[in-house]
């Protein structure tokens, strides 16, 4: 296969959209990606699998006169969301959806890869198709497995995230922090179940969980500098079995966001404090589990990002938008803490937010993204 045309890219995106898989289970997705990649010109290309991270794929293209190795990363996992777009190519996997646009990310990466497979780059290139961005820290897992060593270590790493708030095909970026760091939150409350009619003999964890959730929201409004900001979202609550049994257990899952490690640690500590307070006041056992894993703030490298922005601003075919930091998280933050690089947005123009069941990115963004990235990589290699 030659360089992917716009029609081919859209077909690939729709195929991938129909087979979304959760973190570390991206088996069909990885097989599909491999099939597409093996259809490219293989002359200078090497595909590598990682036995301990079996849904990851790495591709190396040998440069003709390499001065460096350029890395490009895409995430490949999906979310436990039931799709409500009504599209003819909607998810075929019940309860799972590419609701964060990773189908777009993968397709753009394949488009860029197809170009350089056909037009040998001067620098070496590494493409990393990364499992488990939404949870489970795929980037960190790969790094800790020693994947990026020797000829597989990029000198610089680039990656994108789609953005429904930007016009289709626009490139958004900023110097400094692009995305927040996050902490995954798991809270368990243990009390005593009982009959609905006899609360005095039980210890109701629905009421304790409700109090904890309300108090947690005061952390941001009362303990955090409003100029700096932060987020606590508790997105999942499980408790009880039936209306007339007092629940003796509740489970809460959520996420904390801050633009600096200091801020994240401060919010983490305050949530621990709230958990201890609820334990005392409800005579319950409260376990607050906090795990940042690889979701460090996404810090763009100053030198490389300056070059990136200069290229995008100077390219008349690119609609470049200087963006504000966002509270979205990304485990690319971990890889950028080890290898310098730049993360940026690709506009996909949609009324629905990321992670929503109706997200429907504009497909014209794909070819625009491929062209902008291919152009940037080519220009970078000429420096
Ligand atoms: C771009 C995006 O939506 N990323 C996810 C990353 C998840 C981080 C982690 N699992 C957490 O939930 O804290 C996001 O939710 O921002």
UniProtKB/TrEMBL annotation:
Task: Alphabetically list the UniProt keywords.
Answer: Amino-acid biosynthesis, Diaminopimelate biosynthesis, Hydrolase, Lysine biosynthesis, Manganese, Metal-binding
Q: What cofactor does this one take?
A: Mn(2+)
Q: Name one GO biological process term.
A: diaminopimelate biosynthetic process
The main enzyme category here is: hydrolase
Keyword Lipoprotein found = no
What reaction gets catalysed by this protein? N-acetyl-(2S,6S)-2,6-diaminopimelate + H2O = (2S,6S)-2,6-diaminopimelate + acetate
The active site lies at: 75, 134 (proton acceptor)
Which residues does the annotation say bind Mn(2+)?
100, 102, 134, 161, 355
Pathway(s) this gene product operates in, as recorded in its UniProt entry: Amino-acid biosynthesis; L-lysine biosynthesis via DAP pathway; LL-2,6-diaminopimelate from (S)-tetrahydrodipicolinate (acetylase route): step 3/3
MF term (GO), any: N-acetyldiaminopimelate deacetylase activity
Q: Pinpoint the Peptidase M20 dimerisation domain residues.
A: 181-274
Q: Which residues form a coiled coil?
A: none
- Which Enzyme Commission numbers does its entry carry? 3.5.1.47
Q: Which InterPro entries match?
A: AcetylDAP_deacetylase (IPR023905), Amidohydrolase (IPR017439), Bact_exopeptidase_dim_dom (IPR036264), Peptidase_M20 (IPR002933), Peptidase_M20_dimer (IPR011650)
Cofactor binding note = The Mn(2+) ion enhances activity.
Entries under PANTHER family matching the protein: N-ACETYLDIAMINOPIMELATE DEACETYLASE, PEPTIDASE M20 FAMILY MEMBER
Name the family. Belongs to the peptidase M20A family. N-acetyldiaminopimelate deacetylase subfamily.
Q: Which NCBIfam families match?
A: amidohydrolases
Q: What does this protein do?
A: Catalyzes the conversion of N-acetyl-diaminopimelate to diaminopimelate and acetate.
What protein name is recorded for this chain? Answer: N-acetyldiaminopimelate deacetylase
What is the species listed in this Swiss-Prot or TrEMBL entry?
Secundilactobacillus silagincola
Source taxonomy lineage? Bacteria, Bacillati, Bacillota, Bacilli, Lactobacillales
